[in-house]
Amino acid sequence: MQTIMNSLKNLYRNRIFLLMVLPGALWFLFFSYLPMLGTVIAFKDYRIHRDGFFAGLMQSEWVGFENFEYLFSTNDAFLITRNTILYNFVFIILGLVCSVAMAIILSEIVNKRLAKVYQTGMFLPHFLSWVIVSYFTFSFLSVDKGVMNQILAWFGADPISWYSETKYWPYILTFMNIWKGVGYSSVVYLAAIVGIDKTYYEAAMIDGASKWQQIRHITLPSITPLITILTLLAIGRIFYADFGLFYQIPRNSGPLYPVTNVIDTYVYRGLKATGEITMSTAAGLYQSFIGFILVITSNWIVRKSNKDNALF
Amino acid sequence: MRKKKHRDVHHLSPMMNLVFNIIAGGFALLCVFPFLFVIIISFTDEAALNKNGYSIWPEKWSFAAYEYIFKAGDQLLRSYGVTIFITIVGTLISLVTICLFAYAISRKNFKYRGFFSFMAFFTMLFNGGLVPTYMVATQVLDLKDSIWALILPLAVNAFYILIMRTFYSTSVPDAIIESAKIDGAGELRAFITIVLPISLPGIATIGLFSTLGYWNDWFNALLYIDNPNIVPLQAMLMRIENSMQFLMNNAQLSASGQSLELMRSLPAEATRMALVVLATVPIACAYPFFQRYFVQGLTIGAVKE
């Protein structure tokens, strides 16, 4: 009785704060926690029920890990896992190199106003949706009107049917990812570089250090913690692909699926195109589960190196 | 004098400076060029397009695409309207929800702050995945073909709450709030009259993030919207693209009456590019002015507390 009274009193005392978190808490309940509960679909032979979602959940039959067994018996599971991890791996490494290099270049350019203009230009792709960007790529890759085939024709080569030839797509997708992301991520590194104490450089100059030596021994070591953290966090998300990149840029072209299908597009197609709801849920849960382990692990590593930089 | 010293620290040989300018400038141009190219295509004469393909300097210029859109563009106007509506309403809802939630969990005298912080941040680690989310949205919340399907799913985001909470805890000293409370202001009043005005830069950052998110969203429309009356701008562009793809993939069908009908209802090449331009211009014109808020949000997000 006493404890109930106490907790009621506490609730009353915090009523303003509770009202403040209410809208957000409801949102999390409906858009995050109910779906988490809904992942039990992956362990059921789910049928849509006319009495709604919960009735469907309750009345579908348990099948244990059958959906997962089925998923991993197909070739798709291997393919989408490989594509997701390999692409993200390349994106992380190449993106890191390009954005750190670009940040250093921007910080070294003598005319600061010009550097600002370049930075603004590079930032543009970040503000465009993948739908818009897919029109951009189409203007280059269109079979009959695109720039690439015009250039090929100019050299006397045969036109390439870009949207059905798989071999070019790993390069195209990587290029587009870098193109869209470097301006944005170099900004973070640039902010860190600008924050480095100028006296280090002055001291290095008095000692006769060249520009390259300054970059290697002052600039890079100073931003290494930031590089480590951002990279580890990116590795934590290596199981999640950028849906827009893999769905919009290849224009959902069927012949390209072997090199463009990733976990996210697979789950989406299972839900909306092929209707394999249970298997699609299983694939989604597989992604969330491995993703969870990876985020926890990478955060644990970040935390070990520097507590302040950990996500939690 | 100081300026000279500064330049000495960053001495870069004229040759290297040139190389760096070429690399950075070249990449910046590469980033902007496709957009300029699409603008040029949209001003190209349709016959010249069919003859020469896309070219940087068209044989013949034309305003026909834009004239066509402004004459027959009710779908464009409608989609513009939908996008503007969801952007404004969505950003407002999201700002109110996020600012309140983040403020409550930033206050040390909120007894349940640990619980609600965990509630928000756990969603950054684990999620139910697309299918259960879709099921809840369509079967529990009944969002299928509703305008709210374009607004609610994007309204809250744990990352924005994290940024906003960090902003409160770094820029709003506890002492100010305490002194307001000594003066007799309640928790809510202190928040509205003191905390909000100080936090305007943070609010602007979150507001811009979410404005951009709504303006560029096509994914929720792809999932939930079939009704052509509430298709936002980006999704409209995607639909046009998909119908083209459908025609191209089914070349043998092209002769049939049905696909001729579809072909005729689709805008011509230049018109499609003009639609892309009209969807992009507002953002392309606005972002240089708001850039610094995005940078600020990024750096807050990266350094945390």
Describe this structure in words.
Chain A: Belongs to the binding-protein-dependent transport system permease family. The complex is a heterodimer of chains A (312) and B (305). Chain A has helices at residues 2-13, 15-38, 53-59, 66-73, 75-108, 112-123, 130-141, 147-154, 169-194, 198-206, 211-236, 243-248, 257-260, 263-272, 277-305; strands spanning 44-45, 61-62. Chain A is an all-alpha fold and 312 residues long. In chain A, α4 (66-73) crosses α15 (277-305). The mean pLDDT of chain A is 90. Chain B is globular, with a radius of gyration of 25 Å. The interface between A and B is large, with 110 and 107 residues.
What is the secondary structure topology, with strand pairs?
The complex is a heterodimer of chains A (312) and B (305).
Chain A: H1 2-13, H2 15-38, E1 44-45, H3 53-59, E2 61-62, H4 66-73, H5 75-108, H6 112-123, H7 130-141, H8 147-154, H9 169-194, H10 198-206, H11 211-236, H12 243-248, H13 257-260, H14 263-272, H15 277-305
Antiparallel strand pairs in A: 1-2
Helix pairs in contact in A: 4-15, 5-9, 5-11, 6-9, 11-15, 14-15
Chain B: H1 2-9, H2 14-42, H3 46-52, H4 64-72, H5 74-106, H6 113-121, H7 130-140, H8 158-171, H9 174-182, H10 187-198, H11 200-215, H12 219-224, H13 233-249, H14 257-265, H15 269-303
Helix pairs in contact in B: 2-15, 4-15, 5-8, 5-11, 9-10, 11-15, 13-15
